[in-house]
């Protein structure tokens, strides 16, 4: 599976659980961590967990290794490392505080298909 296909798989999974303000950043040449960051938020702890759980389920169904999953229990900022794609699922109250889009402001955004934010 290509990095772009992995990104789209993640986008579809978070969108399925109604993640809001879904943004993908192209990190190629900017970060050694991943090629893409996918950033979104949920409006409650339960929704944040549902988004993370759905992504984990979909990844496992596709045989994609989850290298790391952090923050699930607190559901304020869940990080799901899929290798070339790192997904950040924030609680809406935390997203503005951490403002990853501004922190990584030199990273271009990626056009996403099928997402209504």
Structure, described:
Strand 4 and strand 5 form a beta hairpin. The chain is α+β, with helices and mostly antiparallel strands and 117 residues long. The protein is 36% helix and 26% strand. The mean pLDDT is 92. It has helices spanning 3-16, 45-61, 92-98, 100-103, and strands spanning 20-26, 36-42, 68-70, 77-81, 85-91, 109-110. Strands 3-4-5-2-1-6 form a 6-stranded mixed beta sheet. It has a single domain (3-110), classed as Beta Polymerase, domain 2.
Outline of this structure?
GO terms for molecular function: ribosomal large subunit binding. By secondary structure, this protein is an alpha+beta fold.
Keywords:
117 residues; 4 helices; alpha+beta; Beta Polymerase, domain 2; 6-stranded mixed β-sheet
Topology:
Blueprint: H1 3-16, E1 20-26, E2 36-42, H2 45-61, E3 68-70, E4 77-81, E5 85-91, H3 92-98, H4 100-103, E6 109-110
Parallel strand pairs: 2-5
Antiparallel strand pairs: 1-2, 1-6, 3-4, 4-5
* Distance separating the two termini: 26 Å
Shape annotation: globular
CATH class: Alpha Beta
The CATH fourth-level homologous superfamily: Beta Polymerase, domain 2
Number of domains: 1
Radius of gyration: 13 Å
Gross CATH architecture: 2-Layer Sandwich
Low-confidence residue ranges: none
User: β content, as a range?
Assistant: 25-35%
Q: Indicate the percent of residues in helices.
A: 25-40%
Instruction: Say how many strands there are.
Output: 6
Secondary-structure element order, N to C: HEEHEEEHHE
Question: Helix/strand-derived class?
Answer: alpha+beta
Rounded mean pLDDT is: 92
What name does CATH use for the topology? Beta Polymerase, domain 2
Main pleated sheet = 6 strands, mixed
Order of strands across the biggest sheet? 3-4-5-2-1-6
Oligomer: single chain
Subcellular location: Cytoplasm
GO cellular component, one term: cytoplasm
Protein name: Ribosomal silencing factor RsfS
Keywords: Cytoplasm, Repressor, Translation regulation
């Amino acid at each position: 599976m290509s990095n772009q296909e992995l990104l789209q798989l993640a986008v579809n999974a978070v969108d399925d659980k109604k993640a809001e303000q879904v943004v993908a950043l192209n990190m190629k040449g900017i970060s050694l961590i991943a090629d893409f960051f996918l950033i979104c938020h949920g409006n409650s702890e339960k929704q944040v967990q549902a988004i993370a759980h759905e992504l984990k389920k979909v990844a496992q169904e596709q045989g994609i290794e989850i290298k790391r999953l952090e923050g699930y229990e607190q559901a304020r900022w869940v990080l799901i490392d899929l290798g070339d794609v790192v997904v950040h699922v924030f609680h809406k109250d935390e997203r503005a505080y951490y403002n990853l889009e501004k922190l990584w402001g030199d990273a271009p955004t990626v056009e996403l298909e099928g997402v209504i934010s």
